[in-house]
Amino acid sequence: MLVHRSAVVAPNLSSAVCRFGVFELDLKNRTLHGSGRPVDLQPQAFRVLELLILRPNELVTREQLQDDIWPGQSYADRGARLNFAIKTIRQALGDDANNPHYIETIRGSGYKFIASITTQHQEPVRSVSKRRRFPRLTIALAAAGALALGTAGLVLAMWPSISSVTPVLARPRQIIVIRGRGFGVHTPFANTNSSYLAIRDKTAGWAAGRIIPQNSDEVMVDVAKWAGSEIVVTGFSGDYDKKGWELKPGDIIEIAVWNPQTGIGPGTFRLRVSADPR
Question: Which of 120, 170, 171, 248 has its Cα between 20 and 30 A from that of 146?
Answer without folding.
Answer: 120
